[in-house]
Amino acid sequence: MTLEPAEGVVRAVVLYDGRLLLARQDDGWRLPSGTAEPAESAEATAARVVYELTGYLVDGTENLTPDGGAAAVVCQLLSESPSDGASLTPERLRWAPLAETADADLPAVVRTYLEGHTPL
Strand locations in the chain, DSSP E? Predict the structure, then answer.
């Protein structure tokens, strides 16, 4: 499988134990996101951005990006505790139960994905 370079902003969808990782921005709670480096795939961008912002190690595993849409990548959490040096403080991070993500600014493709992965 060849990974294509990402364009624009990439959003990371990090799920763990029925909760979604969100980052507090000036205008509300959002998925951790950032811009791809030259020749960087969406999966690699998502993993890098999550680490830089939160300190959590993740592996970008599934690109949810529809043709022409904003990139969103499902990431597998590899570390339960964040490393030091994250750019966001713990107060700006939230592990939100999926039922409580209605106030988060999530792309439609992510909401559709989450609907199929809501724990019973």
Answer: 9-16, 19-25, 28-30, 33-35, 58-63, 71-77, 93-97
pTM of the model as a whole: 0.89
Name every residue whose Cβ is closer than 8 Å to that of residue 12 and which is 6 or more positions away in sequence.
Answer: 21, 31, 32, 33, 46, 47, 49, 50, 58, 60, 72, 73, 75
Whole-angstrom distance, CA of residue 59 vs CA of residue 91: 24
d(CA 37, CA 40): 5
* Alpha carbon distance 65, 102 (integer Å): 21
Q: What are 84-117's pLDDT values in tens digits?
A: 889 999 999 999 998 888 778 888 889 889 887 7
